[in-house]
């Protein structure tokens, strides 16, 4: 019998018949195991959801009440004939890899993950396994993320060089915005940070779960002069809309792994690209596979072909799953 024959990849997600449950399904299902709260992994409408307490809180904030079954990191549960354990993925608050054990085999569904230290979430935990299901968002050798502190320092340096302006940072609402704020605090930036209203709810959720973001002030309604010399965070969609026109001569920045691609920065009229990703880069993807040493690698969500090819060159059996509905919400 083929390795992992009890796992069924489908376009809308991964079905585990022995548990009668789906992992990160893109459509409502009776039983869903969810790795983290981004909308390309966590959808509303499931009858029952197993996830970390933080992910369930995020899903409730986005979709309303859930019939949630909280699973703490390291806690083992049994669904049908499958043992299920959640361990940290290092992606965003509450993100997890899901370990599935059945028939003497171990499958790790990593969801989205990164290997860099992040003060807003638990760090990735490598787990040896027979099959490692990995993302490949930045699965090309061109993507090698720079040091986090150097990128965040660009924002502070821009403020110091332009005290009569503000720095407007585009950052996705879940994970990226809170990480930018926390990384600024790690560099002793103690000044108030102004936030767009669309970011406030999830920032409050992070604070409720023990992530200290320092003093945040609402940008909407604030006096233009008050925001001079300060950092303002907003969703990427607000960088060039009418909302941003009321800011004091903003220096437009964008925090994203995609800022490595100059054309992406130009398309968004970004003056100050900040290369900051919540996904593993090429070196981290490949070194993680080497470290875990699975018998097989199943690749999804991104540049699948390149990572499958790399595995083949290193005598690692690999396949692309080609799941649908997985877009990079928090690039």
Automatic annotation (TrEMBL):
Check the record and name the InterPro entries matching this protein.
Answer: MBL (IPR050698), Metallo-B-lactamas (IPR001279), RibonucZ/Hydroxyglut_hydro (IPR036866), Xnuc_lig_assoc (IPR026360)
A molecular function annotated in GO for this UniProt entry is: RNA endonuclease activity
Q: What is this protein called?
A: Ligase-associated DNA damage response exonuclease
UniProt keyword Nuclease present: yes
The organism encoding this protein is: Stakelama marina
Annotated keywords: Exonuclease, Hydrolase, Ligase, Nuclease
Domain called Metallo-beta-lactamase: residue spans: 1-172
State the top-level EC class. hydrolase
Q: What is its EC number?
A: 3.1.-.-
């Amino acid at each position: 019998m083929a390795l992992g024959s009890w796992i069924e990849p489908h376009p809308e997600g991964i079905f585990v018949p022995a548990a009668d449950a789906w992992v990160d399904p893109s459509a409502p299902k009776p039983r869903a195991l969810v790795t983290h709260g981004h909308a390309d992994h966590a959808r509303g409408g499931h009858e029952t959801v197993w996830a970390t307490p933080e992910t369930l809180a995020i899903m409730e904030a986005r979709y309303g009440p859930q019939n949630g079954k909280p699973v703490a990191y390291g806690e083992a549960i049994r669904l049908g004939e499958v043992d299920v354990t959640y361990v940290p993925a290092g992606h965003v608050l509450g993100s997890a890899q899901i370990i599935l054990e059945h028939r003497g085999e171990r499958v790790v569904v990593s969801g989205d993950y990164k290997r860099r230290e992040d003060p807003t979430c638990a760090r990735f935990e490598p787990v040896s396994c027979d099959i490692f299901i990995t993302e490949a968002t930045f699965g090309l050798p061109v993507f090698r993320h720079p040091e986090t502190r150097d990128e965040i320092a660009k924002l502070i340096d821009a403020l110091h060089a332009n005290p009569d302006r503000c720095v407007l940072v585009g950052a996705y609402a879940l994970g990226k915005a809170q990480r930018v704020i926390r990384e600024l605090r790690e560099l002793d930036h103690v000044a108030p940070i102004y936030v767009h209203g669309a970011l406030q709810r999830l920032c409050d959720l992070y604070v409720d779960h023990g992530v200290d973001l320092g003093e945040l002030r609402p940008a909407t309604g604030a006096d233009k002069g008050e925001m001079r010399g300060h950092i303002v965070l907003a969703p990427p969609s607000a960088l060039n809309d009418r909302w941003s026109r009321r800011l004091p001569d903003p220096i437009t920045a964008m925090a994203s792994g995609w800022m490595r691609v100059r054309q992406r920065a130009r398309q968004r009229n970004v003056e100050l690209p900040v290369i900051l990703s919540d996904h593993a880069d090429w070196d981290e993807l490949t070194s993680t596979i080497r470290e875990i040493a699975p018998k097989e690698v199943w690749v999804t969500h991104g540049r699948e072909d390149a990572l499958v090819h790399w595995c083949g060159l290193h005598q690692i059996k690999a396949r692309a799953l080609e799941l649908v509905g997985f877009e990079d919400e928090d690039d």
